[in-house]
Amino acid sequence: MKRLALAAVLALAAGVGHTESIAIVGSTVIHPELGLPRALARDSTVIIDGNRIVRVGPSKTTAVPKGARVIDGKGKWVTPGLIDAHVHFFQSGNLYTRPDAADFNAVVPYEKETERNRARLPATFKVWLASGVTSVIDIGGPFWNFDMRDRAAATEAAPRVAVAGPLISMVDRAKLDIGDPPIIRISSPDEARALVAKELARKPDFIKVWFIHQQGDDLAAQEAIVKAAGDAAHAAGVRLAVHATELLVAKASLRAGADYLVHSVEDAPVDDEFLALAKKNKAIYCPTLFVVMGYRYALSNTWQPTEIEKRLADPQILATMHDLDKMPKEKLPERVAKAMASPPQVKPSATALANLQKVWDEGIPVAMGTDAGNIGTLHGPSVFREMAIMVQSGLTTLEVLRSATTNGAKAMGREVGAVSAGKLADVLILDADPLANIENLSRIHRVIKDGKVYSPDELIRSISGT
Ligand SMILES: [Zn+2]
């Protein structure tokens, strides 16, 4: 309390207690929530006061307030800040981050990796902002996730963060348990309710279930566990997110009350029953198309950074992505040795692509999400890989942008995702038209988050070498 009061006095003394206004003048503003042509508003002016957007209109009739900081928007495009609706801060994207999938403990112990990820948070936050991502949902991790959310909220150069705590899981992941496990095996509805109660004490944004259904498992018994978790979450006004990658399991999740499906259905085309259940729940669907490819590339030593990753990814992570080159053969997990001997053909799942188009056409809100933090899917610029694949599914650039803004905001549950009066001031100023080519979303002139202006290259410079 005392410290806060002192901070407020110091802020006033320094003159920063006053809210700054910003005017972005003469840009083309994109409203992804609208269809064309209304989505494009040429020669527009955006006025930000403090951390809110207060006016958006034609430059001719939108006055610039006295004393406002003017940003010349001529020849530029303004979009809402991007939202990645599926990330994990307890993972870094490097080879050492999921020993349950590929065990490199002999090279870098998992304890070291998790310590690194905690210590590296300020840099990881900056990487997200530099990539134009002003909000993320960490959809499951250790109880430490709640502290991470507090840290993001207290850090200026950080995205807004919503979180889920530990995953209510059907299976054990012993290798990830070093004291505060991200995945906890639950074998009855009572156990599910007990874990949900513990998580609710930390005010999660979501309760998350890791619904792994293996041959021989009793689907009805599993569904009862998911329903127990969902009912307990809903009673507290918290939404239920479920990992379910097979049609059968996704339908069971929706019957159990899922509000958010955090992956594509990958094993079969979605059917009428699935679509009806998703509509009934008003569920959001997050395709995460790249993450599987990221594992395949990285664990066969064929992962290559994109140009934008070279510029905006955490240099410390980039420097380790080819550590397999240096590892003695006997230290390689068998799966990795095999993949290196004959690298797989890596491409997006055709079923997932077709399902994305179908789900979109049926009007189910699709939110863009990368599952960043998994091996090969780097925090920040992997959003550009994900969105490029979404375009391959047949969605238009405007639709993909809508998934990463309007629909991401629905998942996020905050007043973000649109360039309109009353919204929080999270916007991007781009050097090129993102509707002409989705990759232009990476041509970021400035990122504005909560009314503060950042240059992506400066954000990255401020972390490199550390
Ligand atoms: Zn995930």
Written description of the protein model:
The protein starts with a helix and ends in a 5-residue tail after the last helix. It is an alpha/beta fold and 466 residues long. α6 links the parallel β11 and β12. Strands 1, 2, 3, 4, 5, 15, 16 and 17 form an eight-stranded mixed beta sheet that branches. The chain has a six-stranded parallel beta sheet with strand order 10-9-11-12-13-14, sandwiched between helices. Strands 6-7-8 form a three-stranded parallel beta sheet. 34% of the residues lie in helices and 18% in strands. Bound molecules: zinc ion. Zinc ion binds next to loops.
Keywords:
single chain, 466 residues, alpha/beta, six-stranded parallel sheet, globular, binds zinc ion
Q: Strand pairing plus helix content: what structural class?
A: alpha/beta
- Enumerate the spans where pLDDT stays under 50 for 5 or more consecutive residues: 9-17
Share of helix, binned: 25-40%
Give the DSSP E fraction (strand runs of 2 or more residues). Answer: 15-25%
Listed once per kind, the bound small molecules are: zinc ion
Alpha carbon gap, first and last residue? 33 Å
User: Tally of extended strands?
Assistant: 17
Largest sheet: 8 strands, mixed
Label the overall shape: globular
What is the number of helices? 17
Q: If you average the pLDDT, what whole number results?
A: 95
The whole-angstrom Rg is 22 Å
